[in-house]
């Protein structure tokens, strides 16, 4: 008989031996959220009439794209089939599956003792699954390998069970086979969670220490902080302290998610729940931080805390300049829910006032832009994404460049760019195409391993700037959609980088500037001036479009002037009369060229700068 929310044991009185903390890690679209739905139904915490697909995904974008962006925690009561007497408490954390949110995943893993490694039985292991598996192994978690979607006609459970077993180091028969859609095998999986994942270990009488693994902003209650208690106990109405910032707050409410919020008197060792302090700023509840009691609190924080760093920068400008205050307000509100979002005001001669925004990756950029447009009704131009460069000048000064317009003039000694370690998983028939793509993107081969006779893992060092534009789309098209990509930052390297400026009628247009590798600069310049020639309408005078590195012009196109037919009224007569009229027109054009300015239509900026081609639809960014 499944338990109901009413018979969940009181949080503060749960015996740690009956608690199991686990999370689900998988690649995008391998069925994490569907499996979580079946677990909610089986344990009875959500009534059938309230059930909906992707129950734990609260955002519209998550539901439409079928991706998880925010981690969600839920408390499930479960009496195992082999022992119906004790109702165990299973704390499940549903994690994002995308490379941009790896830090959130790593903190969720640190809050657990075990993890379900979920793999699609029709697709097999993918790059992000592998990356998250290594994270789980680093945290010494108990790993339960599970094959999902075994009801699909294309499923190959035997083949992929062997692949999984080789990876985790178990017998292929130990790999559980489930169908999250139909519910087949989910009961056995919950039993295995109780049996194999160890209960939490902590010192009950020690000073309280709890780790924050997520925080969200609620417009009525302020910041809701999700924690896992490691040692001691946190009680309602006591004063707590955040160890990284030293800030103290009063605990107004404490409780668990079942899956809706359920208040309690406190949380003990091993329990997962939420805290509400009335604070309005999410940045005060940093993911990975340690919470302790203000009185007789812990002196040593839990390890693993670091600030998530933005990897990709893009300018966001309102199409209508008068929307600038609305954009500022919208970014402020989004930052309440997303502490990884950083931004600063920026002006562009071409686009007006806007913001330079830092993102964790391309999907993060795409999701934030869509939320701004949808939730706040804004029309935005997003400039092409670029990364952070470090420029050392010959005089010893150092510049940090997040925008091509910040690139310093003068004698440059060295330019450093961020590099990543990329892992690509694909069928072995595409090795040649993948290697060719990586070589053209200045990649260095690190190694290659065969996971099975027809699947290969290729590792490369690549500059981040080469990945953030259209690398993923190219990889997918060259491998007919079979390859998957994962990457992690590994530092920086010195490179021959130059700034390419676009000049219209001799004037630089800051919005079109770009930082590229010396070898790719000429091709970039030629491509952009050709594109602009098509997009900018003809003026009354001739307009040269030039691409230049410093003072050296590397490409040029000319927009011809519109000519009025001044000879229309001349019929017959002497040629000198026609020539006189043409000379007069030429003089007028010359004068106009001196005072005229080139009007660049908004469409041209959108077409050249828009990151739509680069960011893709987002869902597939694996």
TrEMBL record:
Report the Pfam families cross-referenced here.
EFG_C, GTP_EFTU, GTP_EFTU_D2, LepA_C
* Keyword Coiled coil listed: no
The lineage's top-level taxon is Bacteria
User: What enzyme class is recorded for this protein?
Assistant: hydrolase
Q: What is this protein called?
A: Elongation factor 4
Name its cellular compartments: Cell membrane
Q: How does it sit in the membrane?
A: Peripheral membrane protein
User: Could you cite one Gene Ontology molecular function of this protein?
Assistant: hydrolase activity
Q: What is the documented function of this protein?
A: Required for accurate and efficient protein synthesis under certain stress conditions. May act as a fidelity factor of the translation reaction, by catalyzing a one-codon backward translocation of tRNAs on improperly translocated ribosomes. Back-translocation proceeds from a post-translocation (POST) complex to a pre-translocation (PRE) complex, thus giving elongation factor G a second chance to translocate the tRNAs correctly. Binds to ribosomes in a GTP-dependent manner.
Which family does the similarity line name? Belongs to the TRAFAC class translation factor GTPase superfamily. Classic translation factor GTPase family. LepA subfamily.
Instruction: Spell out the SUPFAM superfamilies in the cross-references.
Output: EF-G C-terminal domain-like, P-loop containing nucleoside triphosphate hydrolases, Translation proteins
- The primary gene name is lepA
Question: Which Gene3D superfamilies does this entry report, sorted A to Z?
Answer: 3.30.70.240, Elongation factor 4, C-terminal domain, Elongation Factor G (Translational Gtpase), domain 3, P-loop containing nucleotide triphosphate hydrolases, Translation factors
Q: What is its EC number?
A: 3.6.5.n1
Record's keyword terms, sorted: Cell membrane, Elongation factor, GTP-binding, Hydrolase, Membrane, Nucleotide-binding, Protein biosynthesis
Question: In what residue span(s) does the Tr-type G domain sit?
Answer: 17-201
The protein's annotated catalytic reaction(s) are: GTP + H2O = GDP + phosphate + H(+)
The organism is Streptomyces justiciae
């Amino acid at each position: 008989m499944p338990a109901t929310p009413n018979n969940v044991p009181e949080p503060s009185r749960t015996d740690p031996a009956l608690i199991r903390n686990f999370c689900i890690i998988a690649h995008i679209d391998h069925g994490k959220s569907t499996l979580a739905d079946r677990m909610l139904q089986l344990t009875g915490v959500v009534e059938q009439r309230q059930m909906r697909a992707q129950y734990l995904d609260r955002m519209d974008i998550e539901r439409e794209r079928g991706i998880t962006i925010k981690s969600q925690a839920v408390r499930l009561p479960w009496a195992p089939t082999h022992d119906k007497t004790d109702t165990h408490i299973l704390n499940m954390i549903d994690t994002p599956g995308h490379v941009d949110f790896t830090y959130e995943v790593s903190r969720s893993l640190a809050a657990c003792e075990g993890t379900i490694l979920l793999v699609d039985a029709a697709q097999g292991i993918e790059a992000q699954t592998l990356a998250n598996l290594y994270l789980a192994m680093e945290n010494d978690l108990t790993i339960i390998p599970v094959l999902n979607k075994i009801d699909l006609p294309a499923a190959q459970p035997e083949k992929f069970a062997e692949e999984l077993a080789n990876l985790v180091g178990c017998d292929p028969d130990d790999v559980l086979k489930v169908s999250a859609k139909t519910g087949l095998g989910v009961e056995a999986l919950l039993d295995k969670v109780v049996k194999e994942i160890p209960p939490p270990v902590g010192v009950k009488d020690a000073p309280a220490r709890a780790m924050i693994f997520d925080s969200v902003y609620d417009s009525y209650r302020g910041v809701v902080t999700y924690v896992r208690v490691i040692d001691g106990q946190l009680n309602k109405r006591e004063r707590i302290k955040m160890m990284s910032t030293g800030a103290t707050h009063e605990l107004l409410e404490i409780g668990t998610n079942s899956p809706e919020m359920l208040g309690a008197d406190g949380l003990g060792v091993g329990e997962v729940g939420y805290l509400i302090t009335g604070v309005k700023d999410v940045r005060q509840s940093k993911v990975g931080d340690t919470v302790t009691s203000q009185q007789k609190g812990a002196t040593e924080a839990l390890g693993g805390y670091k600030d998530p760093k933005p990897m990709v920068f893009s300018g966001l400008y309102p199409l209508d300049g008068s929307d600038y205050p609305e954009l500022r307000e919208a970014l402020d509100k989004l930052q309440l829910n997303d502490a990884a979002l950083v931004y600063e005001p920026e002006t562009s001669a071409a686009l007006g006032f806007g913001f330079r925004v830092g993102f964790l990756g391309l999907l993060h950029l795409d999701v934030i832009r869509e939320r701004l447009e949808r939730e706040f009704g804004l029309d935005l131009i997003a400039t092409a994404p670029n990364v952070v460069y470090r420029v050392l000048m010959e005089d010893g000064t150092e510049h940090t460049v997040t925008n091509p317009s910040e690139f310093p003039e003068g004698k440059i000694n060295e330019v450093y760019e961020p590099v990543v370690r990329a892992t690509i998983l694909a069928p072995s028939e595409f090795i040649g195409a993948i290697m060719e793509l990586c070589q053209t993107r200045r990649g260095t081969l690190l190694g290659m391993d065969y996971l099975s006779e027809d699947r290969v893992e290729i590792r490369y060092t690549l500059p981040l700037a080469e990945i953030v534009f259209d690398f993923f789309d190219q990889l997918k098209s060259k491998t007919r959609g079979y390859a998957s990509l994962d990457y992690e930052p590994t530092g920086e390297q010195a490179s021959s980088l130059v700034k390419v400026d676009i000049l219209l009628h001799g004037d630089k247009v800051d919005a079109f500037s770009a930082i590229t590798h010396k070898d790719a600069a000429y091709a970039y310049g030629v491509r952009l001036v050709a594109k602009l020639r098509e997009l900018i309408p003809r003026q009354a005078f001739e307009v040269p479009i030039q691409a230049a590195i410093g003072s050296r012009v590397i490409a040029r196109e000319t927009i011809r002037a519109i000519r009025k037919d001044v000879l229309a009224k001349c019929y017959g007569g002497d040629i000198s009369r026609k020539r006189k009229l043409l000379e007069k027109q030429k003089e007028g054009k010359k004068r106009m060229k001196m005072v005229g300015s080139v009007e660049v239509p908004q469409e041209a900026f959108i077409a050249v700068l828009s990151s739509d081609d680069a960011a893709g639809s987002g869902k597939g960014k694996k």
